[in-house]
Amino acid sequence: MSAFRHGLVIGKFYPLHHGHEYLIRSAAQAARQVTVIVMAADVESIPLALRVAWLEELFAAHGNVRVVGIIDNERIDYHSDAVWQAHVAHMQRGIARAAAYRAVPAGPVDVVFTSEDYGGELARRFGAASVCLDQARELYPVSATAVRSNPVACWQQLPACVREHLCQRVVIVGAESTGKSTLAAALAAKLRERGSPWAATQWVAEYGREYTVNKVAIQRALSPNHGTALQQLQELHWESAEFETIAREQNRLEKQAARSSSPVLICDTDAFATGVWHERYTARRSATVETLARQAGARLGYILSSWREVPFQQDGVRDGEHVREWMHERFIARLTQERATWMLTAGPLEARVAQCLQWLDQRLPSAWRLAEPLEKCGPSPHSSPGS
Taking the model in full, what pTM does it have? Predict the structure, then answer.
């Protein structure tokens, strides 16, 4: 039997971490119904809808937890009754919205769960009991402020959905047979050697290669005696829809890997590069593929692998030796056009890995630029509820 009828948890969840999960999970165990209100301000750089989606994903199996989001641009002042009333009015609006979603009304709030000093006053304003959990951060040594300041140090305290959003992608692009896959694997291996949290570094293979292998095998099965293997390869006909399929799957694989990777994910190509391949095979650009490229996650930058030092190796599915220079120049043009951050890597593999690591380490300190929450932008020095 639950101790309470209706529990309330409020916060910015900017970003969400395991301490927040613990607070809500505990509320769900103690109350028959729990309303979680995500209170975001316009100055903050993680969208409200995304924060709500994170919580909905994490607590999808908890039928007694309802998550709602509201915009609250009120300043923070714990000594002002008027300011308190303004914040509580926003919370009441969120509670009413949650009630409208519920099949069975939760009734008045009779308990407030927090891990902050303000919890007692907040509970008093609802005429509810106050439960304060892990205020000293001994069970879960993390805070949203710490995550914003140093995501790498807090990486293991972040749920998979938040890691997916914050994980920085390093994408290796280039013409055929320029050592992209070898470089991706070697770079990820070097990062793993740095230990926790880098030990989880992954790299995402190029789905387009898998797709091409299948396409070639099917073509050869249909026309086994039609020309040489290279002739069959060169005669393959490519449709825009195929590149759209490749780009979507590349995005899916990238999102999946980012959930369990370290703060950096190495990608052997991406949907942007798929757009360049679309140009190569159809002589035109694809608006759909380029839209898919814009939907991909955070990019630390691109690494363009030089073709000049790498002999072309025919592996049964490559037909682009004659256009390697064109492809290389096209990548430069498109990366420049997109105003992407990128570097050129050249030389033997060991030198390329060293170049990439140096560039990556220079970029990482400024990779996560989360805006300060509202209370840091205003006149009050106090921390906000549930930051």
Answer: 0.91
